[in-house]
Amino acid sequence: MSEAIELPAVRRRPVFLAGARKNLTARVDDFRLALAALSGHKLRSGLTMLGIVIGVFTVVAMMALLNGLSKTINKQLCALGSDAFQIQRFPAVQFGNLSPEIAARKKITLSQCHQRKELLPQAKIVGAEMWEYGKTSSAGPNRDLGTQVAGGTPEFFTINNLPVASGRGYNEAEAEDGARVAVIGAAVIDALFPNSNPVGQKIKLGRMELEIIGTIERQGGLPLGDNPDNTVAVPITLFMELYGPSRSIVLGVSAYDHESMKKLQDQSVAAFRRIRGLDTMKENDFDITSNDSLHEMFDNLALIVKLASGVMCGLSLLVGGIGVMNIMLVAVTERTREIGLRKALGARRLRVLMQFIIEAVLLAAIGGLIGVFLGYCASWIGQFLTFPAEVPLWAVALGIGVSCGVGLTAGIYPAWRASRLDPAVALRDE
Known about the structure:
By secondary structure, the chain is of the alpha+beta class. The chain has 15 helices and 10 strands. The protein has helices at 15-39, 42-48, 50-76, 100-103, 110-119, 156-159, 172-177, 186-192, 236-243, 261-276, 291-334, 336-344, 349-384, 393-419, 423-427; strands spanning 84-88, 125-139, 142-152, 164-167, 181-184, 202-205, 208-216, 231-235, 250-254, 287-290. Strands 2-3-8-5-7-6 form a 6-stranded mixed β-barrel. Helix 11 (291-334) runs parallel beside helix 14 and helix 13 packs antiparallel against helix 14 (393-419). The radius of gyration is 35 Å and the shape is elongated. The termini are far apart.
């Protein structure tokens, strides 16, 4: 009896792998065809994607600006101690002109600061300060034209979170007697004493010569507003001697911890209303500023800017999407005979549909990438100009994703129209 011959097993490739490879090859071919079609009409493609470029650039650039501002301002807001708040005559940030009611507020005086100290024994620190901006300071041949002079009580450095780097701050006796001493910031040191230790040397504010008894740690400037490194701090009574006593004083209060700060604010408002002689029917004639209030104000402003940017971006992308749809309809019309020939040779509707969808998405994606690149360029220019700008990755992903979505949405109808063409009719097209 003859032995049965065993044939070697034939390895069969899984059906789904073969199908996946076939689909991948088809998509690669579609991608090449789309790239060739776009490169064949460079000017038309560039003008079509312009709206998408502008929209994505707007999103990336504005989010870079807001992200950089947010990080810098969050860091700089710590200049006012986390457990401290200030009472001042006018709001810390004001958009537009002051209302007549606010402009008519009475000045805050140094005597009111002393009264508040007595009425707030539960406060850790109570101090006062005054500011003058754009003053000239000098030391020998060197001059600094952008000095901001702060007059304060000894608590000034703690309340404003300005640690003394070397030397010392002025004491209570010096603050009361108007001693001719000063504590200077890092930018003033750079301008007036670039190669020497300033402690013990002399500095002039106007014609008055002061002895430098200490320096303030380098802080880094705000992107908008004041740079604490430009500060020259002097005793508050000396400040009044230099610039007059008519200015309103800013009062600073520090709590023992952040949890008790809200309660201390309420107690401080009640005490200061009594000092100012306000009855129960009158509104406060002063404003309270803290890190929390400044954070809230900046967050509200950032939200408005984000919404405005979103509207601008949406309009640009809408225009870009209309342009993509229009150019794809033109492309379908121009390539009617090509579509008819492909379908006559066996191309299915899905293949034709995918070809034009990929072309539309590719066109929009290139516009999105250009917009992202321009957004990064704007960020680099801002950093070169010392303006904080940092592109967040989510803005890049959002810009590219939205641009591809616009291309997909705008390309569906032209692609569907191309896939529905009758080969016989399409081949007769002239």
